[in-house]
Amino acid sequence: MTWYAFACEIIRPSAERGGRSVPVDPITSSDYPAPVRRLANSRLSRARLEAVFDIRIQPMKSSLANRLDRLSPR
Predict the structure, then answer these.
(1) Alpha carbon distance, N-terminus to C-terminus of the chain
(2) Which end of the chain is more exposed for a tag (fewer CB within 10 A), N or C?
């Protein structure tokens, strides 16, 4: 998942629950110059965390939906 897709996955369901809807524009690392070198692949894997601690981490989309439901005003 790209950082753009990650941001969209937060904004869209939040807006569906009455939160602010803001535009999310995809950019490349070269569009946002920074003094540090960016990794070509910064994806995270939950496999090692689950194996070491013998836990099951909920998929991001359903976890985010559950959290937004709990935070949304009733």
Answers:
(1) 31
(2) C
The Cα–Cα gap between 22 and 68 comes to 16
Distance CA 62, CA 71 (A): 14
42-51 pLDDT per residue, tens: 777 889 889 9
Tokens of 30: 């070269």
Kindly tell me the burial class for residue 13, based on how many C-beta atoms sit within 10 Å of its own C-beta (0-12, 13-18, 19 or more): middle
CB 36 within 8 A of CB 30: no
- Distances in whole angstroms, Cα of residue 62 to Cα of each of 34, 55, 59, 66: 33, 17, 6, 6
pTM: 0.60
Distance CA 49, CA 56 (A): 9
